[in-house]
Amino acid sequence: MRDALRLQLTDLTDRLAETAHDVAQAMADATTSLVDRRLRLAEQVIAGDATIDARRDEIEQRAVAVLALHQPVTTDLRRAVAVIHIADDIERMGDLARHVAEAARRRHPAQAVPEEFRPLLRRLGRTATDMALKAAEVLRTGNVLLAAELDGDDDEMDRLHAEVFTVLMDPGWQHGVEAAVDLTLLARFLERYADHAVAIAKRMIHAVVGGGPDPLPI
Amino acid sequence: MRDALRLQLTDLTDRLAETAHDVAQAMADATTSLVDRRLRLAEQVIAGDATIDARRDEIEQRAVAVLALHQPVTTDLRRAVAVIHIADDIERMGDLARHVAEAARRRHPAQAVPEEFRPLLRRLGRTATDMALKAAEVLRTGNVLLAAELDGDDDEMDRLHAEVFTVLMDPGWQHGVEAAVDLTLLARFLERYADHAVAIAKRMIHAVVGGGPDPLPI
Question: Which residue among A64, A160, A189, B208 is least crowded, i.e. fewest CB within 10 A of its CB?
């Protein structure tokens, strides 16, 4: 029974890792569609988000079924609850990738971001995507060191994010309010996406090694 | 045993309702601090967010303890899982209220939003706050009709949000890029806050009356 439970929990974390992989691809595609004005790619990301939502629902239902059938305690219970949280994080990352693709589609065939910001957007997109891939790897392996690395990546993300705002606030900004609004939201979407990647790693480590206080007696 | 379980679940939803009430107050104070340039009030909201985070942690720990001790199934299990989700939603609403207060503090003693947008910001703040109070009421009472009302409120929120963007995109915008960036983010924070209020009501109704497919057999 205990073995069956462990197998099912591992199966769930594998499914999460796979879905994290998918939202990494979604964000990579979304930023490409944005910077290279590829409408079809943007539409693909937008349409693909429904699959990610469905995957989240399925993973949560399986996690709840594990709770009902195996009634796990301590570490196993913590892992099952972490699965439910992480499924939410991943689903939200899918939404944020969709938002980036929607910005690309909204402005098409115009460029949503001024030419000179394309490299910065590319770097933001690549950093966010790499963080999602690393989160997927943490899910697959439980690698604590990799989880710690994600904190450093998040600093890089914050640096890039600050760079966007420095540019936006420059009195020499020439691109008008519409482009400023777009860039503000895009930077926000990418920053939040990265936050969720960090949250996934933290939840996974917490579930595996504990670290918080034990559940309160009630 | 079943009675004790039910009592504990009701206690948890009451705690959630209380915390939803607190984040409603936090958003009310945050928008007031923003529109009326009240620095002390902004700082109070910012400092208060730690209490909301701690409350979320405690509620989640109690929900996990309920799972461990009572090993609930069907509706009770669904309610315990909903508690964990809703605690996350409320915590996030607290973050968003803090972000609004941080914007007020960042620009102080200057006005973060141009004079003419103060009424619009007030309406956004009031709508968001009312939605949080309604979500608290749904948690306390399980009132399905009130939960349905929140969908309508969210339409009003979307309308106000769209109004912000109409103003921002007007070629006559005179307030520069910095104010545009601030207003874009503020509108986003309030919109997300409202989304979470709607999500709380939906999760609560789903937990009480079901509605989704049963957990998958595994």
Answer: B208
- Kindly provide the ipTM of the predicted complex, given to two decimals: 0.93
* Sequence-separated (6 or more) residues with CB below 8 Å from residue B35: B113, B118, B121, B122, B125
Question: Nearest C-alpha of chain B: how many angstroms from A44?
Answer: 25
Answer positive or negative: Cα dihedral of B189, B190, B192, B196.
positive
Return the CATH fold of B2-209: Methane Monooxygenase Hydroxylase; Chain G, domain 1 (1.20.58)
Whether A61 and B213 lie within 8 Å, measured CB to CB = yes
pLDDT in tens, chain B (218 residues): 689 999 999 999 999 999 999 999 999 999 999 999 999 999 999 999 999 999 999 999 999 999 999 999 999 999 999 999 999 999 999 999 999 999 999 988 888 888 889 999 999 999 999 999 999 999 999 898 998 899 899 999 999 999 999 999 998 899 999 999 999 999 999 999 999 999 999 999 888 776 544 444 44
Return the sign of the alpha-carbon dihedral for residues B201, B202, B203, B205.
positive
Query: How many other CB atoms sit within 10 Å of the CB of residue A131?
Result: 28
Contact A143, A205 (CB under 8 A): no
Residue that the structure tokens 């803090």 belong to = B98
With left for phi above 0 and alpha for psi between -120 and 50, is residue A112 left, alpha or beta? alpha
- Give CA–CA dist B155/B174, Å, rounded: 29
CB A5 within 8 A of CB A72: yes
Q: A212 vs B57: CB contact, 8 Å cut-off?
A: yes
Compute the distance between CA of residue A71 and CA of residue A162 in angstroms, rounded to an integer.
46
**A64 with B84: Cβ contact below 8 A:** no
Measured CA to CA, the distance from residue A183 to residue A23 in angstroms comes to 21
C-alpha distance from B179 to closest chain A C-alpha (Å): 10
- Other CB atoms within a 10 A radius of the CB of residue B215 amount to 20
